[in-house]
Amino acid sequence: MLNRLINFVTSLRLTVACLAMAIVLVFVGTLAQVNLGLYVTQEKYFRSLLVFWTPSGSDWRIPVWPGGYLLGWVLLVNLIAAHIKRFKFTWRKSGIFLTHVGLILLLAGQFLTEVFQVESFMRLEENGEARNYSEDARKNEIAIVDVTHPNHDTVVAIPEAMLAAQNEIRHPHLPFTLRTKEYVPNSFPSGPMDTNSSPRRLKATQGVGQRLAFDEVAITAKMDDENKPAAVVEVVSDQGSLGDWVVTTWLTKYRLERSLPELRTLLQSPQQFAFNGRTYQIALRPIRYYKPYSIQLLDFTHAKYRGTTVPKDYSSRIYLNNPEAKETREVKIYMNNPLRYGGETYYQASFEPGDTVSVLQVVRNPAWLTPYFSCTLVGLGLIVQFTMHLVAFLKKATQKIRSKTVPSGKRADLAAGRGDLEPAGAAAGATGSAKTFRTSPKRRNS
Amino acid sequence: MKKWLPWIVTGGFAVWLLSTLRPPPEATDFHVNEFGRLPVLLNGRIQPFDSVARNTLLSIHGTQTVRPPKEDSSKKVLSATEWLLEVMTKPEDADRRKIFRVENIDLRNLLGAREGRLGQMALTDFDEEKLMKLETDAQKIAEKAAQQRTGYERDLLHLVESLMLYHRVKSSLRLSDSAPFLASIGKQLGEKAVSRMGAEGSDPFLRELELFRKSFAPGFEALRQYEAGGEYNKEDLGLFSTLFHRYQSLANRAYPLIVPPVHPDHSRDAWSNIGTSLMESLRSGEIHPAINHFAVMASAYRDGRAADFNRAVAEHKQWLASQGLGLEVKKGWEEALFNRLEPFYKSQVIYVVALLLGCAFWLNFSEPMRRSGYLLLWLAFIIHTGGLLFRMFHEGRPPVTNLYSSAVFVGWGAVVLGIFLERIFRDGIGIVTASSVGFITLIIAHHLSLGGDTMQMLQAVLDTNIWLATHVVIINIGYSATFLAGALAIIFIVRGLFTRSLTPHVSKGLTRMVYGTICFATLFTFVGTILGGIWADQSWGRFWGWDPKENGALLIVLVNALILHARWGGMIRERGLMALSVFGNIVTVWSWFGTNMLGVGLHSYGFMEKGFKWLLAFVISQVIVMALAMVPLSYWASFRNTKNLPEDSGPTGQPVAASA
Q: How does residue A39 score in pLDDT terms, banded at 50, 70 and 90?
């Protein structure tokens, strides 16, 4: 029984089956991007153990195909097991061995990346204030900021996922409870005059929500769009309710006052309330990752090719300030030339119209070097194996052609004239070979 | 005789090639070719008028020359540059040329294009009112996603865009409406304005420039007084502002940037179009010398004064060199030469001949045929390489920068491998596969070039970077190898099934070739794919993002790995190997073109609408070949009457490391 299991786990048939299933998975996962968008497709097909199918009109989840994680793990186990079982180092196998070590490193590195990689963004205004945090592109948090103290703020941040899942949120540092009355994963602001009948309209008794409602809209999967969640949160203390607030990323990520000038003062001031002599602000904002250093944008440039709108270059000149390391310097970040600092990498990601706002992508990935090693190993391994194979083959081919094309009597002269160990090509390329080829092997066989 | 035949054949083609190196004589007294070599700036790069003309004509008309109308008895075919000159200087003649294509039947009926040849229409054939309405329709269509447009809408959009481009080209060298403009100015301002115009009877545009020259100082003075709040001459100021608005609209319209920078050492790429330059003159008070040169050329060409035209062209060229723009003149000259030599077209022709000779060798196994084919393959390959190298040095970029150049490069890579195979095996198979893949990829490249400039500048994100350059080149070699393996497999299947020529020896050789080529393809596609990931990591911080193009490359790696492992495990034999190699063709073409048609992801830079049906046809043909491979061996012509089935010979080329 165990033997059969070992044979199965180490078999080439398993490798081939996994490769075949991976081919189908990758192809279907590519086509699905047209409708589902990149992010949803990745979650459904590649970052999953199984791919589920939901027949329309039902909410069944029928597993129909192995997902990316499952295939990756099985291939990895298969590869390692096969090597353990049959490992016996010989020079002739060295290329295959190197290749597979490289592959193991690549797969392992990608799993590490999946687990540990954090992607966020830093939006910087030219000569604006220095930032010491970056913001997540997708995940949000509800932040309750105690701004009573003149010198520092106290922040309690609760992930959006908790807001969506629970009705009541308590936190040891908060003297009140948050009660989620409504939550929608995507929303759109609607003025008081809007009469379209949305299934859910979010309003509040306090703050912006009194004047501006938010309607639920369908979740988007487009690459150039994102979901803007909204929620109605009631702040409840032991002395009773402090009112309902609408929190949404519309208020923290977008400049609604530009399209709604009549609400400018309301939209520009933070939503806040007082309780027990302390002042709190409440907001739904992207999750922040704080750094021990700060970055300020000095200058953003955006060059185009003359007479066209084709961008030639984007670059950000920034000022990096790390008080702990007593390090201050200017850095130029531009396309294909990121800044690697403090375990993170800063890329020129985009900009806003007007060319005064630059957006940097911030990536923390402890496994970022694995592909470099892996590529070297696999490349080397394949070259070694391929070259050994080719040399052996060419030797054989040369011998065969000689023995078959040169009549035995002439062979000695030829060898004397040309030297005995010429590569195969020399005989074919030589002008005199036309005559000898009349007795080529195919002729005889046909 | 037989011994020398290959050399005679190859020598003949070489002589033909050398004969085309000599510049052809000018078709008329005008030095049109010389004009075609003058440098201008368009699409962000320096190029000769010749390239502007060819690319414009290609995108409007679909060819690089204009055939004469039926009623023209001289039957003279216009070269692209001649056509461009006609449009820019004699628009009333150019407007009557049937150059606009209307392929869609509905659109053709709507426009009443039935009379024109193949739905081709001249500007004068269009009904103004209908055109106005179509232009508004086109604006709406332009907002739709490219994939959602119908055939009618695509054609309509192309037509409207062609008309717009045509109008822009028209006002690139001179203003075509100078005569009515001067008449209306004369009516408005009377004697004073007329006296400032150039001599009566000379070219209207030259007269307008003269008016501009003489009106500048008084107009500027009037403006100064007006701004100071004092007395000012209303007529002078009015004329000044009329000219300002006129040149402002011209600045938005004129197409190539023909006027070189005033201070090239300060900013070398600060070229401007004729309108922008005239606007600039309103500030500086001086007309740019280049405008004068072009005005003289235009009026001389229009009036048929060849000597004046030629002198102005030579003067302009000399003046450019004296301004320190010698490098630009050289670039223009080089590119015009490249355009004329058409190396890819010529190697395409020779590939076909080599292919035919290779097939002829199979029919009668006469060695001179094979030798001739082999030498011709080399000849075509040398020209192909020359074209590739020229493009690289001219652009200062790696060989692959866009879909067009990838097609040229993939073919080149397959030919290299094919020549290598032919040197080893000497059985014509290398010739046939290499020349057919080379020929087909160059045809594809030709069709991709219809989209416009093939040397366009790269988006910032694609700008040269060592990882980008290496990954694209390596992955394209991987494409070449996979296609070559597929082509070899097709030969195996077709020869085995339909002819008796697939002897055990040939079959063994082919299996070896396919196996070796797939090893090679695996190496290059894998390394190329990983390097692509590394580039992505360097550029925007993620090694792998499941982007369609990345997935496409991964698919090729997976298919090649699957073939190798299945072969080592004994799961497939010769026919299985062949069928899967043909499948490799499908996957490669999907990765190369199919992924670009999805219109999603970072790599969707090369969206092609018309390519889709060709892609589909190719996939279907490959599926049929795969099905043929599955026909039981007893029906194969080569094995019907023999007990020596290839299946009995066991897997050949099995590597020593099969157990790993």
A: confident
Find the domain containing B529 and state its range.
463-652
Q: What residues are paired with A142 via a beta bridge?
A: A158, A284
Measured between CA atoms, how close is A12 to chain B, in angstroms? 6
My answer on whether B520 and B430 are in the same domain is: no
Q: Considering the domain boundaries, does residue B546 fall inside one?
A: yes
| Nearest CB to A383 within list B269, B523, B537 | B523
| A104/B contact by beta carbon, under 8 A | no
Is this complex scored with an ipTM above 0.95?
Answer: no
Buried-state track A214-242, b at ≥16 Cβ within 10 A, e below 16: bbbbeeeeeeeeebbbbbbbbbeeeeeeb
Q: Which chain A residues are Cβ-neighbours of B555 within 8 angstroms?
A: 23, 26-27
H helices present in B229-342, as ranges:
234-253, 274-284, 289-303, 306-322, 326-341
Mean pLDDT over the full length of chain A: 80
Domain boundary among B451, B479, B509: B451
Q: Does the distance separating the beta carbons of B530 and A374 come in below 8 Å? A: yes
User: Is a pLDDT exceeding 70 seen at residue A234?
Assistant: yes
Per-residue pLDDT averaged across B58-62, rounded? 85
- Indicate yes or no: CB of A13 within 8 angstroms of CB of B569: yes
For residue B440, give the amino acid letter: I
Q: How many domains does chain B have?
A: 2
* Least confident residue range of A388-402, B263-277, B356-370: A388-402
**Tens digit of each residue's pLDDT (9 = 90 or more) over A111-143:** 888 888 888 999 888 888 888 899 888 888 888
Separation CA B521–CA B523 (nearest Å): 5
Of B506, B533, B541, which is closest to A442 when you measure between CB atoms?
B506
Residue B445 in any domain: the answer is: yes
Adjacent-strand bridge partners of A315? A301, A334
Residue that is last in its domain, among B407, B422, B451: B451
Q: Which residue of A has its CA nearest to B548?
A: A30
Residue B478 shares a structural domain with residue B625: yes
Residues B374 and B494 placed together within one structural domain of the fold:
no
Is the pLDDT at A225 greater than 80? The verdict is: no
pLDDT at A440 over 80: no
Average pLDDT value over all residues in chain B: 84
First to last CA, chain B: 54
Q: Report pLDDT digits (tens) over A41-92.
A: 888 898 889 998 888 877 888 888 999 999 999 999 999 998 888 777 778 8
Structural domain contains residue B223: no
**pLDDT recorded at residue B609:** 58
Other C-beta atoms lying within 10 Å of the C-beta of residue A168: 10
Query: In the prediction, which pLDDT does B569 show?
Result: 86
Interface test with A, best of B402, B464, B537, B592 (most A CBs within 10 A): B537
- Tell me the chain B residues in contact with residue A338 when contact means C-beta distances shorter than 8 Å: 538-539, 541
Of the candidates A37, A257, A289, the one whose C-alpha atom is nearest the C-alpha of residue A141 is A289
Other beta carbons within 10 angstroms of residue B325's beta carbon come to 21
Min Cα distance B642 → chain A (Å) is 13
Q: 3-class DSSP state for residue B265?
A: coil
Name the minimum distance, in Å, from the CA of B27 to any CA of chain A. 33
Tokens of A398: 């040369």
Residues 6+ apart with CB under 8 A from B75: B68
Contact A442 B533 (CB under 8 A): no
What does the block give as tokens for B288? Answer: 């740019």
- Using a CB-CB cut-off of 8 Å, the residues of chain A touching B459 are 310-311
Chain A, nearest residue to B374 by Cα: A429
CB atoms closer than 10 angstroms to residue A49: 13
Res A40: pLDDT: 83
Rounded to a whole number of angstroms, the distance from the CA of A411 to the nearest CA of chain B is 19
Alpha carbon of B197: minimum distance to chain A alpha carbons (Å):
32
